[in-house]
Amino acid sequence: MKGVFRPFLKAAAASFTLGTGNSLGPEGPSVEIGSAIAKGFGNVFGWEGGKKLSLVAAGSAAGIASGFNAAVAGCFFAVESVLWPSSGDSSSLSNSTPMVILSAVIASVVSEIGLGSDPAFTVPEYDFRSPTELPLYLLLGVFCGAVSITLSRCTAVTMDMVERLQKTTGLPMAVSPALGGLIVGLLALVYPEVLYWGFENVDILLESRPFTSGLSAAVLVQLIGVKILATSLCRAFGLVGGYYAPSLFIGAATGMAYGKFMRFTFTGSEALFHVPFLDVASPQAYGLVGMAATLAGVCKVPLTSVLLLFELTQDYRIVLPLLGAVGLSSWIASSQRFSTSGKGKLDSLEEKTSTIEEAKNVPTQTQQLTSVDSVDATAELCKLESSLCVYDVKDDNVLENLTVAESMKTRYISVSLKTPVVEALNLMLVEKQPFVMITESNKSLLGLLTVKDFQDFCKTVKSTRMQPEVDECLVSHVCGVVRCKIWSVTPHMPLITAEKIMDSHGMDQVPVVSEHVNHQDGGILIGFVDRECITIARRALAAKEFFSFTSEIRREES
Length: 558
Prior knowledge:
Mean pLDDT: 79
Number of strands: 5
Low-confidence stretches: 336-375, 393-397
Distance between the termini: 24 Å
Strand order of the largest sheet: 1-2-3
Shape: globular
Strand content: under 5%
Helix content: 55-70%
Order of helices and strands: HHHHHHHHHHHHHHHHEHEEHHHEEH
Largest sheet: 3 strands, mixed
Structural class: mainly alpha
């Protein structure tokens, strides 16, 4: 019953949050509501795996398509935020595409019937003067990336401060939203534009409504800072809403301020610099591109951002500036997110294992920390905008108490670097196992090779016309040509983390090593966990919980 009512409670909470003007947006809750309804249908029909993933993706597409009246952007949002992160099988993506398209189209049609066919905000006519402007758009992408990082960091710091406040003062969770609303209301006494008015405040920024006086660049810069603070406070104090609308507002303010500064610098009779071949477009053009670049930097959906603005403007000329600015903003925001985690360990990911000595010297622990850091970055993004992680919730409530040790297999094939390739393949054939572990004499893990790795090695040897003797071809030769997989997990690691590591690196199995302290080796190999292990653990635990729940009900009845 809680699962049934959750979407409606989410809608009611979001309606109160946004109806009272708090600095969040409706698109995030819309996506979560659509996904929750999709999960409910999946549970009713008993669908699992790819079918349920397709339903969740369709619900997400419907949420974005109805929120912005943009069906194409809704389709790509489902692909970027649900299908790509959650599916390691390419067939799941192709099988889900028709359902996602139909859902986005139906949601757009229903939205047009109920709310009209106008876009979410009034789109000014896009103005593109000359290809010489493209460097200015690239620089705008850099600024939008910096603004995206500021919003993400400010939200994280504010959430940490509010959590400490609640622990120190004993502030009840139910009182926190009211306190957050009070602070945002006080900010709005000076800057009323930061409140949620639908997208009317975005129209004011873009100067797209008649009889609207434009804001100066100085005021726009102030609004950027105050909007970031207000949005962070709303999220930290537990108010319900999404980050899409605030990102678009902040992006519009950034682009408009940047555009006005560039026109003042390069055009007009009082321009600071006269560049004869440079004709700067109107600030509204930079405002539109800034909206997409900031949305991509904050929510990590670059394709959705590009297609959303292209679909709303219906102007092909905007595509090239959009791609440049969005690409730079996404790259800057993502690199900053990963650079602070892992304590400088990320450089080891780029090391090439072209020789056996290099393969030995790359510490598996470092790669393992890197993988965990990428999972932590995903968790950070989910805290910022929970609608970007609608499918991961499916496994968390089932696997949150399971560890790798409870689901791993301890029977495996291990070989050394000096083992002949033919012998390794024979062992895989006898044991019907599609991979082999590479270990040292003391069982320290060096890496993992799959059947596909051996096939790739054969293709490389054939293409380079290197025909070594079959008996002389060793596992070390394969590792010298094909990069061995060196990521691993530990027994006490949550099974959810192990699955995310496999998803992020495109693996179907990952070695399990002991909790080692020595940094010179990769740990003692004790087993492995694969997708079959995770599926069995999930189903067994679900069945166990069902029977436990049934037994408890019977005891209460008796």
